[in-house]
# Entry
Amino acid sequence: PANHSQSRDLYQRALKSLPGGNTRTTVYMKPFPIYAASGAGCRVRDVDGNEYIDCINNFTSLIHGHAHPALIEAATKQLALGSAFGMPTESEVELAELLTARLPSVDHVRFCNSGTEAVMMALKAARAYTGRPKIAKCEGAYHGSYDYAEVSLDPTPAAWGGNAPVSVAYAKGTPDNVLADVVTIPFNDVEAAVSLIREHGPELACVLVDPMPNRAGLVPADRAYVEALRQVTREVGALLVFDEVITFRLGYEGAQGLWGIDPDLTTLGKIIGGGFPVGAIAGGKKFMSVFDPSSGKPALPHGGTFSANPVTMRAGLAAMKLLDTAAYSRLDRIGTAVRDGINAAFRKTGVAGTAVGLGSLLKIHFTDRNVRDYRSAYLSEMEAKRLAVFTTRLLNRGILVASYGLMALSLPMTDADVDTIVKAAAESLEEVAAFG
Ligand code: PMP
# Structure
């Protein structure tokens, strides 16, 4: 096995100044995380000099891999001109123009610094626009750390209740008032979702949906489901908010292009920052007008010291310009190759499981259940063990994947890299089969 002594030492140091030695729950690993030193293309090197093919890509945000020359140039050029101003810059206009040109549902864009912030501001925008207090979101779907958005992120089976999920706090200390203002709907269940939305209709500001929610299984929403959400939100006068923080990497016009849906508001993040912190709220002019300060205090004031900072904007522009339709076709091809390769290995080894997802995103489920939503994706103890064996064995073979089985591919990956990933996954699955 690889030497990780420098990582172990760094973690010991980190324990003294960071809670549990950690800054992001998502990157914590037992007994200690592996510390990154550098990255180039699809490869990262850790502080002990071990090299990995990076299938995490900073949790889907790096679609061009690490240290892409065009992104380095865009960011460093801007750094030399100043990294942040108490004034707007041309860069925010340019990135907004690019996004409005790509997303048919979007007239106006508002930048912030993370996906969490984008979702928070979209929910507040929906409340400001409608004058209503409640939001609806799907059970098990992750939308960042805003109190309302994280309700029912990971309820245990004991808290599931029947077909109409109850709202369950994610963080300790979540006020009951927050739970009362969140309607949790089941993903991919048209009848139950529509009926809950109708029931709370007059109080509902918006329905927040990620059409391929990573934590709820990374299975694409049925077309009928998103169409039903589109229709019933119009019926009850609530806004439909698409969270495309991740799914914008699925296609040139994002998930909304693939599903053929016009949401009222869209949240963006990750890839649009070219590797720098970013978020954006985007949508139709009339909805986005809640932010407009040109005729006095807006319905929804919004600042942000680093919102639309030009380093992020310039790197984001460079990243998005490189993402032409040919780039998306390439990502679709390599994503299909990895999914097909892993599914073939599942069949060959006889291990129950499947690789799901679309485009450059995939997730491994160690089950033969038909995964359709949070509950069917919920891991049994044995499935969790198999997943842990699989991801650890992949890591030993130099392939970095998220601990919960998510893989995000990137454009610098060559066909040879794709073969290496599939081969390592197949060998790791053989070890899972031997493990039992
Ligand atoms: N929405 C979705 C769908 C996400 O996946 C994430 C982050 N993984 C967020 C929102 C929050 O984004 P950030 O981590 O930039 O705050």
User: Anything to note?
Assistant: The CA atoms of residues 351 and 433 lie 6 Å apart. The mean pLDDT is 97. The first helix runs from residue 5 to 17. The pocket of 4'-deoxy-4'-aminopyridoxal-5'-phosphate is lined by residues 59, 114-116, 119, 142-144, 210, 214, 243, 245-246, 269, 279 (CB under 6 Å).
